[in-house]
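Students often ask why inverse folding is considered easier than folding. One informal answer: many sequences map to the same fold, so there is more than one right answer. In these notes we will look at a single instance of the problem. The structure comes first.
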């Protein structure tokens, strides 16, 4: 039986991989805000069910069956986010947490109805794709992190990290959202980046800039 907890773990592994992280128990403890013993117990169950494999160095990988479940959960999360934004008009920075709660309640019949209602779209309101891509794959497609941007160049925001509500609200206040155009003015001595967004000048720290993927105009 695939429980909500199992879906959460499998999705977290897939998403952490897509963020370029090496997935070990500590990664999942941080990602899911749970204790290390809870992760150890969950991994035993997931391994027994043939959904993950744990290497000798602690590196956790999804099996083909585990990845299939993770991707199905991600699709439902994506559809719920779009439903909340496109039908109910919720702000783009509010919908991730709500979708985390609702994604597990989506039946195949409701999923089909959502697809019929919303149509097909590859990206969610945060700009993240249905197909999770590693940082290397994103770079091959012409994307780069805002923290890697060149002074004097202009970019379009492709996607933002969606698992931090406070960060999303900060981005919204500063005008950093998918589709926004950004001019990079300078890299500063203190590690910040000077940006111009809709004639609004801001200095963005490295930690925030590493959460934004952009493409060059």
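Output (designed amino acids):
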């Amino acid at each position: 039986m695939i429980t909500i907890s199992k879906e959460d773990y499998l999705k977290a592994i897939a998403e952490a991989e897509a963020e370029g992280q090496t997935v070990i128990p500590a990664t999942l403890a941080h990602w899911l805000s749970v204790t290390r013993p809870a992760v150890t117990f969950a991994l035993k169950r997931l391994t027994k069910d043939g959904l993950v494999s744990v290497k000798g160095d602690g590196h956790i990988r999804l099996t083909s069956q585990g990845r299939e479940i993770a991707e199905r959960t991600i699709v439902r999360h994506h559809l719920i986010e779009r439903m909340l934004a496109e039908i109910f008009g919720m702000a783009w920075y509010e919908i991730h947490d709500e979708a985390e709660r609702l994604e597990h309640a989506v039946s195949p019949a409701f999923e089909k109805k959502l697809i019929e209602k919303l149509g097909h779209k590859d990206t969610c309101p945060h700009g993240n794709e249905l197909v999770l891509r590693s940082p290397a794959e994103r770079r091959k497609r012409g994307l780069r992190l805002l923290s890697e941007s060149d002074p004097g160049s202009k970019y379009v925001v492709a996607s933002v990290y969606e698992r931090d509500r406070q960060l999303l609200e900060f981005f919204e206040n500063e005008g950093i959202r998918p589709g926004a155009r950004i001019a990079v003015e300078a890299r500063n001595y203190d590690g910040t980046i000077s940006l111009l967004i809709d004639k609004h000048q801001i200095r963005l720290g490295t930690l925030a800039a590493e959460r934004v993927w952009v493409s060059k105009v």
